[in-house]
């Protein structure tokens, strides 16, 4: 693609400057981002210090250990650099689309599929082709796979108007299911008994380390990728066109710039970086493709990109800094007795504070324009034993799974429907849900009352919602970015505070045995309904009625459709959205309480299967209708129960592919019902994700 753009270039050192004042102003503009980012990091560390004091530890000791573990010796520096290597590439997966105003959060999917593709490309060649050829083949395979996967989000965005944030999220879950399918099935090494994986690469086919260092070549590849990316964005017509389109899409269209091709091209290029990160994990770290590919690098890369202000060169020091913080986690845990989630709490704190600082200084302009618009289901969540009742037992298994799996989705999607009806989106509900699960379990253990646990979860969910709503009321705040930050903060805080409650047993929420009329245990199990499921069903009807027939519902709809119209009626949109976000957070936390106090009925760090994140897709799927949210949650739960139900009658081939069924179903329906030329039916007019 060739883009002709004629624009005058004025250097601060040129004769037209006439004095030192333009030079000083130019230097100030260049220094300002660095000063703001450093100030935000210091402010985040100060806020985190208060938290450390509250838990009875010394911030000075913590930061000293953080420095020692990350950068205090040559060994720790190399460890930090090794951990930074994949973050360089996954951060580019976020930073590149951001230049066009796109928010891609599904880089994890490109990482895992890039790793699988690299392994699949290498294994037939091992032993017969030189490593000098095999390694580039692996890199190309990983990049192509990652590019195709994330590029699909760009294609759906441009041609069908599907929001790229939701599309990339759904694709990430589908990618993890595909990875598990391949490493458990067609590509599995028979010798990998305890941890399914592909056949290992021989030592001479591994990527190797940089000479004189115990750091693999992935670091050098990542640094080069960041430098080349900066040149591409800042010094080419392609990058200049992207910056124009990201700043003002109408101006770009008037200039004749191919906005659609830019969207597809930038998302595909972004995905290729994440796919390359997956290849490096296989060829330099793991030695094979296995479940460890889903290590969260795609999500941590979001934080790196935002802290670096989506500047490829700034990504390098930020990734090394976060790599050092991550490397120090083990030392902090041993010396201070703090949970390993301490690092995650710090990352979440830094994320929130950097976004606040950007907002107050009014310099974050990447998301002001929008062109044209960990995890999987756990096997035990919906498993049924092989009962020998035949194929007619499959519907019963799906029914039981739908009811059990859908309940947290019901509460989270109802909460998100209230929030989005006010014109705000909250992607932080995953953190709220997990923190609610931890809170409910902890209170239930200490009080021996599960209902007190549910009430406590509601209270903490409301607090998280209030924090999210308060931050989002400031001008130029991107609610999607804040949601991601709050999600990371909530997850870290839940893992940090919940460590002592993993072993204790809490009382469970009661259920109602509606299947007592039958002697078949399968029917009794399918109709053993938890009270919260019934509450969710009734609540969906009540919220639907309130939206249609009450003054509160009218106020919510007016604010959600137009802030100006709301102000003309004497309403305060910020206050309404603040309260709506708080209510949404409290309901999401109830969904978390269900997970820990009924099904699966325990507290651990892997309790959520992405229910909080998926709520946004379900609300759009349901067209912001609470009853539709209830039905969509049931459909999603039933689709998720399909695989275990078939396995219960002996159908085991392609087991993990069935885990992708609910995400594929949701994505297909979104594609079928979306359009690049018209708004989604029922969408609140002020909701940014549908514009």
What does this structure look like?
- With 691 residues, this protein is an all-alpha fold.
- The chain has helices at residues 20-54, 59-71, 74-98, 107-122, 131-160, 164-184, 218-235, 237-247, 249-254, 259-286, 297-307, 312-327, 329-336, 342-361, 393-421, 429-447, 450-472, 479-498, 521-526, 531-549, 551-561, 563-568, 573-597, 611-621, 626-648, 655-659, 661-673; strands at 511-513, 528-530.
- Strands 1-2 form a two-stranded antiparallel ribbon.
- The longest helix is centred in the first third of the chain and has 35 residues, at 20-54.
- The radius of gyration is 25 Å and the shape is globular.
- The two termini are 28 Å apart.
